[in-house]
Write a structure and sequence with these properties.
The protein is an alpha+beta fold. The protein contains two helices and three strands.
Length: 80
């Protein structure tokens, strides 16, 4: 009976009950890598994913999430 009630409640009510709703794209928390040799303005090559073998300049280094923002990679265009 409790599961039926939970199915009809909203996400906010789930948080109120102390339960967590399932996130869409859950991934485990990253442990920050403390010994990086990559810094801003370095020239790097992508080794995985859709933009494999593309090269670009590092615009931002996000050490807390182990991510790097590379110029010209993963571009999104918007129609205005």
């Amino acid at each position: 009976m409790l599961s039926r009630a939970l199915q009809t409640t909203s996400r906010m009510n789930l948080q109120f009950l102390g339960l967590q709703a399932r996130a869409f794209a859950w991934r485990p928390t990253q442990i920050p890598n403390k010994t990086w040799d990559i810094v801003k303005d370095d020239f790097v090559q992508v080794t995985e994913g859709r933009y494999k073998l593309s090269r670009g300049k590092v615009m931002k280094v996000l050490r807390s999430t182990n991510q790097v923002v590379v110029q010209g990679v993963n571009l999104v265009s918007l129609l205005v």
